[in-house]
Design goal:
The chain is α/β, with parallel strands linked by helices. The protein has 16 helices and 21 strands. The protein folds into 3 domains: about 150 residues, 3-Layer(aba) Sandwich (Alpha-D-Glucose-1,6-Bisphosphate, Chain A, domain 3); about 210 residues, Alpha-D-Glucose-1,6-Bisphosphate, subunit A, domain 3 (Alpha-D-Glucose-1,6-Bisphosphate, Chain A, domain 3, 3-Layer(aba) Sandwich); about 90 residues, Alpha-D-phosphohexomutase, C-terminal domain (TATA-Binding Protein), CATH 3.30.310.50.
Length: about 475
Amino acid sequence: MGDIKFGTDGWRGRIADDYTFANLRRATQGFATYLKNRARQGPVVVGYDRRFLAEHFAATACEVLAGNGFTLLLTPVATPTPVISFSAKANQAIAALNITASHNPPEDCGFKVRDHNGGAIAPAGLKEIEANIPDSAAAIPYLPFAEGLASGQIAYFDPKAAYLAHLATLIDVKPIQEAGLKIVVDNMWGNGAGWLSEILQGGPTQVIELHAERNPIFPEMSRPEPIPPNVDAGLAVARSVGADCVCILDGDADRCGFGDEQGNFVDQLRVYALLAYYLLEVRGERGTIVKTLSTTSMLDKLGQAYGVPVVNTGVGFKYVAPAMIEHNALIGGEESGGYAFRGHVPERDGILSNLYLLDFMVRTGKKPTELLKLLFAKVGPHFYDRIDVRLTDRTLTQAARQRLDSVDLSQITLGGHAVTRLDTSDGYKFVMDDGGWLLVRFSGTEPLLRIYTETTDPQAVPAILADGRRLAGV
């Protein structure tokens, strides 16, 4: 039936190709065996997104988990991943499972697993789940969904009230409601639809929602990933209505995108630096910053300026979440637009991230472009871009790895900049003489080669990316 491999954030596959009901049962059995080995007591929280058949896949996963003796708390509607993660902690669950492919193309579905803290499971745990996946679905125990509901072993629950009550302990939204802002919210046809509107209602602030219905083909975007060109339609609406900013949520609402008052996209590295600056400067908080090696060096400069440690990890919240717990971190995040916060769960939350950005605007009385000027006055301007190259041919992938493994740093420059060192802890990160970097990395969720750069030299960005392509031979 084929191997099921867990990447950066669980298992994802193409619906009706490798993501079938039979393979979903196998993956769920691997998760069930993993949970049995933990010997914890409590329910498992299960949720799903708005993709094709997602609610039916979730029901199937519940049948297998129930057949293994677990009790299930199932969301009644498509629910944001951060809400599901919080619900694991709020309900003293032993784990959570979300049927979602997050920002992947519309033909995909996925299998996100979370631990009892609501955070991503560490790499060793994911390997254990993989190792427990049976070769066949034939002998997997299951309890028919209707029987599980009738017996109470599977129960629907509404996670919204507890999550919103918890948010109220983290942020006072009243000033945002009363600020009279005009906010465009692009839900990217995903699970976040309606959440920011409900939170911000009750005052003169106006919320204009886009892409709020269920539409599994994701019109006006190639995928619900909160970066251009997928966000271009939402940014255009913001310009047409004169919005003060654009709040963007990806397909399962764990990632945050942001647009300024001119309808321009604010890249995710700048957003991460803004969020850290807001917590350190405006709220006066202190604590460790956790960041993946693919995200901004502005965080290192903020750490130095405010005297807080900065911990670097591999790419993915399977590395970030354990580090946040270990260090009781103030904030953790990654290049993809996922940010997590102390006092919440060690999991990305696009809803809370956007609320913090709005609070930053209200507390300072500044527009997004003005906030960036404040940030750059502190750490200097930084410029970022990324390209993705699809590699479905295994031979090309192997050739790219061989080329990257054989690079002689003394013989290359990137966009005219010398390379001072190479970090291969997760991909190939070339650090340049201006403190900027180029990262060439094979995706853990899709057959993609991702090439990223951040530099203080804005003119060099296209050349650095082009040099990255040449290094990999793509």
